Amino acid sequence: MSYIKRSLERKFLKMSSAFKAVMVTGARQVGKSTMLKHLAQGHGRSYVSMDDADVRELAEGDPKLFFQMYQPPILIDEAQKAPALFEQIKILCDESDERGRFWLTGSQSKKLTKEAGDSLAGRICILKLFGLSAKELEGRPDDIPEDYTISTLLQRSQNHPENNILNIYSHIWEGGMPDIIAMDAELRREYWNSYIESYLMRDAVDDNGIQDTEGFRRLLRVCAAFSGGLINYNDLGNAAGVSGATAKEWVKILQTMGIVFLLEPYFHNELKRMIKTPKLYFCDTGFCAFLSSWTSRDTLMNGAASGHYLENYVVSEMLRNAYYGEKKVNLNFYRDTNQKEIDLILEMDGTLHPFEIKKAASPDKKTIKAFSLLGKCGKDVGAGGIICMAAKPFPIDRENSLIPANLL
pTM of the entire structure? Predict the structure, then answer.
């Protein structure tokens, strides 16, 4: 399979020109090594992987000798397996003003981030790579529009294919792991089974000290069933056969692994009746679909949970847009004790952009009524709308529009 350009490349190269070391973290198999190897081609950068037991033994036992053999500029793959290197990297960073001397990859873990951050404070930039987004798969960059006005959306739609529910749910069901692209259903099923056993369960035991592997495996599947909902650790624990406290601890581990993320509720002092519980989503909707035993795109698309999967898809795509982009963007949701809800709030340049997410092509326009609550915040409320299956952008009122899901 030919290389797929990653949206993180722009930010990575910019940070490499400013920092002496740059590390890319992320869940297992999202394409960290592939991206950095691609960027290193033709630039005389040496490459070494800590998966090689002999090389790892040298790195851990004699870091000085290691860097005599493998001199910077260097790409070190799976750096978390040789933490002794970080102190020597610090010394070498301080000996030179050269930027981008060290490119590192590491599977996402709290221990790795702490070790790298403590040893290389002020010298390293740590970036996160997610699985392939729908836009990356289509050869377009992950970006966020300047605004969400109808004029901007119509202009944006000229450079996008027509919105199509089959394409959207294909992205949802297949997910974004690079190795899974073009696999049939049987191969995909075996890939995910192997992913759980070879990576997740091993990391759960080796990196996080989890002994109840069966309980952890059950919790993983329960999280998939609860995806898109407000998180309740007691309910998760009861369904997985563990305590609420254990469920909370394990969800944090799944977060550090890059498997799930929590969308925090929007907070403002003027909104008195807000619910403060976050919502649980999967970083990869294909993995979530596998865990919930959806065996095809069509069964998922026509199933009772199809709306939850569309919401997870939209939020995870927006998360990528926000993370890879140049601007600082905050993502939240709103729900209060009166059951008034806004699925997604994007805050950019001090302006709030509210969104509902609906599977319909012609959703009920009354669903944006809760948007008016944001006026109490004292912040500017900009254009938003309903992200849905409409064929093209269409105005709802002066501020809000029907937004085809493929225009994210």
Answer: 0.93
